[in-house]
Specification:
With 152 residues, this protein is mainly beta. The relative contact order is 0.19.
């Protein structure tokens, strides 16, 4: 079982892993707690907990919140699904909005690692659901890079 570096089992959600709380004020912190776990060969599940503050004016989870979650799910879920360890950047991510996401119900992403190339490209497909009802589908590509940017 592959897991991202620096994770531990979440004490409130047995069988799920997390990095704990993201640093206050970071962009990732706006997504809230991110949970993840391997889910079979080449697959993982990731979970976020949408709040009222993540809703758009129509009462659905804001598209930006969903896309941020999916981007993070490709990284954490990708590692759980067998992606090689390393530093990656997102090359592309396409999201289809197929149902309305709601607050106060966990949003899960099933992440499937489709292919990993020797050159460091990793291709994913996935679907998000709430209570078993599909809300979003996605595909994306990550690229492994040798030298990450240094913090400002």
């Amino acid at each position: 079982m592959a897991l991202p570096a620096g994770v531990s089992e979440d004490p409130d959600h047995p069988g799920w892993y997390s990095w704990g709380d993201f640093p206050r004020g970071s962009f990732a912190a706006a997504t809230g707690k991110l949970l993840f776990k391997p889910d079979g060969e080449g697959r993982a599940r990731c979970r976020m907990f949408p709040t009222e503050g993540m809703l758009n004016h129509g009462g659905s989870i804001h598209g930006g919140a969903v896309m941020s979650f999916i981007d993070m799910a490709m990284f954490a879920g990708g590692r759980c699904a067998g992606m090689d360890e390393g530093h990656y950047v997102t090359l592309e991510c396409s999201v289809r909005f197929i149902g309305r996401g709601r607050a106060s119900i966990p949003l899960d992403a099933e992440v499937t690692l489709v292919k990993q190339t020797p050159g460091g490209h990793v291709f994913f497909n996935g679907i998000c659901d709430q209570d078993g009802e599909p809300t979003h589908s996605f595909s994306g590509t990550l690229k492994r890079i040798r030298t990450p940017n240094r913090p400002a």
